[in-house]
Amino acid sequence: MDLCHVPAAREKGWYLALMAPNVKGPNYAWLDPSRLYCHPQGLQDCVADLLQPFQGDAIDMVAGIDAMGFILGAAAAATLRKGFLAIRKAGHLCVQTVAQPYTDYSGREKVMEVRTDAISPGLRILLVDQWVETGGTMRAAIELVERLGGVVAALLCVPAGVTAICIEDSEGGRWIQERYKCSHCVPPRLQPRFNHHQ
């Protein structure tokens, strides 16, 4: 793993090539982004690309979705100099929480939760996850934030929004993009390949 090489021309998404394909079979995600996160310039450019559409927007807090959204979410929060909120899988928080059931990308039924005192009405939240495949996980996070009175930037509303390395062109991905301000790192020419996990 070469953590020093940086291409001379760094177009949006150059760091996607750092991700490694699945070699373990269908029970695993199709790409592993660990090398991207280990590469200093790759991680910085990824976070910058994710945040670029939100430049000048009023964001009060960044929330990352358990577990890989914690990495990008914390990096985004540090870049923006904002606080970071972890949206957790159920059973990890020892304080009062509100919970939301959802179906993840693999079709498994799960529950996520967030502490009840972290989001005040009108707080503008930037939601971050590693990937939006079917949209179920992100949609559950949106519902949690909105149930507590937070704002996840509906397109006609006050900014904040949704961001991930990739938002796939799935029914759930389109539902999110039609309703919320979104950003992701996949250039349009590569989007069909990512949609088909190639």
UniProtKB/TrEMBL annotation:
Pathway(s): Purine metabolism; AMP biosynthesis via salvage pathway; AMP from adenine: step 1/1
The Phosphoribosyltransferase domain, residue ranges: 56-150
EC numbers on record: 2.4.2.7
GO CC, alphabetical: cytoplasm
Catalytic activity: AMP + diphosphate = 5-phospho-alpha-D-ribose 1-diphosphate + adenine
Pfam families, sorted: Pribosyltran
One MF term in the entry's GO annotations: adenine phosphoribosyltransferase activity
One of the GO BP terms on file: purine ribonucleoside salvage
Keyword terms: Cytoplasm, Glycosyltransferase, Purine salvage, Transferase
Subcellular location, principal: cytoplasm
SUPFAM superfamilies hit by this protein: PRTase-like
Subcellular location: Cytoplasm
Gene3D superfamilies hit by this protein: 3.40.50.2020
Family recorded in the similarity comment: Belongs to the purine/pyrimidine phosphoribosyltransferase family.
PANTHER family in the record: ADENINE PHOSPHORIBOSYLTRANSFERASE, PHOSPHORIBOSYLTRANSFERASE DOMAIN-CONTAINING PROTEIN
UniProt subunit comment: Homodimer.
Protein name as it appears in the record: adenine phosphoribosyltransferase
Gene assigned in the entry: Apt1
